[in-house]
Amino acid sequence: MNRCETIDALRGHVKTVRAEGKKVGFIPTMGALHPGHASLITKAREMCEEVVVSIFVNPTQFNSREDFEAYPLTLNEDISVAQKSGAALVFTPSLDELYAGDFALETLDYGLLTSRYEGQSRLGHFDGVVAVVRKLFSAVDPDMAFFGEKDLQQLAIIRRLAREEFNGLEVIACPLVREDDGLAMSSRNVRLSGRYRQDALALFHWVNRVKKAAETKADISGLLQTISGEAELMKHIELEYIDVVNAETFEPLRSRFERYNAFVIVAARVGGVRLIDNCRLACS
Ligand code: PAF
Is 37 a residue of the active site? Predict the structure, then answer.
C-alpha cells in the first residue's frame, strides 16, 4: 500500500490508475479507524479496483478545542487497518497542505439539513465538514465516495454537496456497525470509561423501542415523549434529541414511514461524551 502527503502526489497516483482503467473509490476519515471504517473500505474494494483512504483530523469541524485535542491519534494502527481492509493508497495531508493557512468557512444553508438536530446542536460543524470534504473530493477526484449511515445527517449533506458540485460522483451509503452488545461503533467510544460504557447502551435501546413501535404502528409521538421523560431521570445521560425523520430531508415524520426513508435519530451525552445513533424504521 502507498502513502502520500501532498495533493500533487495524490493526483499523480490517481491519474496513473485511471489510465489503467481502474475505478477509484474514496473513504475520507479522521483516523482512529474501527471496524465501521474497515467495512467502508471493504465495500469500496468490492465496487472499485482502487481504494483511497484519507486520514486527517479536521480542526474546523470541532465545536471546542478540548474535543479536538481529545480526538484519538492512532496513525500506525490506522494505516494497518486501511491496508488489511483493501486500501491501495492512504492520503495523510498536513493542515497546511489542505488549508494553506485559510480557515475562513462559508456558512452552509441546506435548509433543515443544516439547521436542525446536529446542525443545531453543533453550530458550524457541518461548515467544517463540507469545507474539508470539498477539498478532499477535489484532490482525489473519485468515482465513488463511501460514507457510513452512522452519521446520517452528514451523509445527507454530502449527497447534496456531491449532487450540486461534483458531477458524476456517486455517494454510497454503508450500514452502521455495532459492537456485540449493540453500541454503535464510534471513535469516541474509547472515551466512555467505567459505568458510562454500560449507560451508553441507552441510545441503542431507545432506537430499538422506536423501531418496534413503528412496526406495530404504535403512537410514535407519545413514545418519543416517554423516552425524553425517562432520560430526564437518568443521572449520567443528557438527551439532546430523539426524533423520527426522513433521512434525505431531515423533516420530522410521525406516520406513513413506509412512504419515506424513515429513521429514528438520537443524540445524547453520556458521562460527558457526545454520542449519536440511529436506525431505519422498517414498517410492516
Ligand atoms: O465522518 C468523518 O469522519 C468526518 O466528518 C469526515 C467526513 C472524514 C470529514 O472530516
Answer: yes
Say how far apart CA 223 and CA 221 lie, in whole Å.
5
pTM of the model: 0.97
Take residue 103 and report the three cell numbers written for it.
Answer: 480557515
Output the CA 194–ligand 1 centroid distance in Å.
Answer: 27
Quote the ligand 1 centre to 26 CA distance (angstroms): 12
The C-alpha angle 220, 125, 30, rounded to 5 degrees, equals 105
pLDDT digit string, tens, across residues 90-117? 999 999 999 999 999 999 999 999 999 9
Q: Which fold has domain 2-174?
A: Rossmann fold (3.40.50)
Residue with the nearest Cα to atom 9 of ligand 1? 129
CA distance linking residue 219 with residue 221, whole number of Å:
6
Backbone angles phi, psi at 235, to 5 degrees: -65, -40
What CATH superfamily classification does 187-279 receive?
Answer: Pantoate-beta-alanine ligase, C-terminal domain (3.30.1300.10)
pLDDT digit string (tens) for 59-85? 999 999 998 998 999 999 999 999 999
The three grid cell numbers given for residue 282, joined into one nine-digit string: 422498517
**Cα gap 91→55, rounded to integer Å:** 6
